[in-house]
Write a structure and sequence with these properties.
alpha/beta, 7 helices
């Protein structure tokens, strides 16, 4: 941003122009859709020291996959800590851990897409245990309840993935359009990607071409 004339004038006067500092923008993207309360507690504790010790030229944004509790880029540590305090799980429907039956999207995919008989039997046993105390009236009823739970899980997973991919796409587009050094830190407990891998890879490739650095952290280990 310094012209040749300014440089010449500064040299003639014996003054040295200050170096232009490239701004560093850091966006922390929290997966509040798949995370548990404990996951987010650990993630918040890991990020708090970073937002409390920003260097000159650094701005930080706090964003979530759900789109709730977002804080745009700022160097105000107080605003960033307030956004971190608002973090909480915001799951999208479907049975999960602690519900009946307790299974995940991966198991549902095995049953719904790949017709895995072993996975079906496992979930049926879990339905029998949690819904009937191990004494189900009939196998037909167990199958009906199991397929109903699988259908709910697949519908919820579809909605969750649409929101996840849209959020990642929006973040990549937004950060790619900014100037300076740009970093996205994606904090997630992980997720089953399945058939959505191609779309996710496309978004990440776009970020790489734009010079955006993407780091991922498994918040189950924080």
């Amino acid at each position: 941003g310094v012209t040749a004339a300014q440089t010449s004038d500064a040299a003639d006067s014996g003054h040295v122009l200050p170096a232009v500092r490239a701004e560093h923008r850091i966006l922390f993207l929290f997966d509040d859709i798949n995370a548990t309360p404990n996951d987010l507690v650990g993630a918040r504790k890991a990020v708090e020291p970073r937002v409390s010790s920003l260097k000159p030229g650094e701005t930080v944004a706090i964003m979530t996959l759900s789109g709730q509790g977002n804080q745009d880029f700022t160097s105000d540590s107080q605003k960033l800590r307030a956004a971190l305090d608002m973090l909480k799980p915001r799951p999208i429907g479907g049975p999960g851990l602690g519900e009946c039956p307790p299974f995940d999207y991966y198991i549902a995919t095995l049953i719904d897409t790949y017709h895995d008989g072993q996975a079906l039997q496992i979930v049926m046993q879990e339905v029998n245990a949690c819904a009937f105390g191990g004494d189900a009236p009939s196998k037909a009823m167990l199958q009906t309840l199991t397929y109903s739970a699988v259908s709910q899980m697949m519908q919820a997973a579809g909605a969750r993935w649409r929101l996840t991919l849209q959020s990642i796409d929006d973040v990549v587009r937004r950060v790619s359009a900014l100037q300076g050094q740009r970093t996205i830190v994606f904090l997630s407990p992980g997720m089953y990607v399945g058939e959505q891998q191609a779309a996710l890879t496309d978004y990440l490739d776009r970020a790489i071409r734009a010079g955006v650095v993407i780091n991922t952290l498994d918040i189950r280990g924080l």
